[in-house]
């Protein structure tokens, strides 16, 4: 084989090796960035979960100290537990949160409540207070239980 052809193959081989090294280097950088992003996402989700658990505990304390309306607490518990542990809403004593939520979810809140006729709001409040009275003991027991619950 002529010497020039051998050199051409060597140069082509070196170019291919260099191109592969650049490709491997870029892929390793991309992989490192993806792993970093994944770790940041996992840390954020863990922090968010911890904050939600803390919110559950704060709401439970507020219920125990009668600092929040039971209906509002049930709506908040339901929203938080939907994310933290949805199956918990099906188990006693926590199922009361789902029960109360189901009974009052049709009622307007926030801006919609402000835009609703006052007589309708009074009627809905009366209905809401009746639901709270009906389930008051269960809500207090569930709030105490959820405050001491260990989320996995």
UniProtKB/TrEMBL annotation:
Segments traversing the membrane: 6-25
Location of the DUF2489 domain: 17-146
Claim: Membrane is one of the keywords in the record: yes
Keywords: Membrane, Transmembrane, Transmembrane helix
Name of the protein described by the UniProt record: DUF2489 domain-containing protein
Native species: Marinobacter daepoensis
């Amino acid at each position: 084989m002529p010497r020039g052809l051998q050199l051409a193959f060597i140069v082509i081989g070196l170019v291919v090796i260099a191109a592969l090294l650049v490709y491997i280097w870029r892929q390793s950088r991309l992989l490192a960035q993806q792993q970093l992003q994944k770790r940041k996402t996992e840390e954020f989700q863990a922090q968010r979960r911890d904050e939600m658990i803390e919110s559950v505990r704060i709401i439970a304390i507020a219920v125990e100290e009668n600092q929040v309306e039971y209906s509002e607490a049930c709506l908040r518990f339901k929203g938080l537990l939907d994310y933290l542990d949805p199956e918990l809403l099906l188990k006693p004593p926590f199922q009361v949160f789902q029960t109360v939520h189901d009974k009052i979810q049709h009622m307007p809140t926030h801006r919609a409540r402000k835009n609703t006729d006052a007589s309708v709001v009074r009627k809905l409040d009366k209905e809401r207070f009746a639901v709270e009275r009906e389930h008051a003991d269960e809500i207090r027991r569930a709030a105490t239980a959820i405050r001491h619950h260990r989320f996995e």
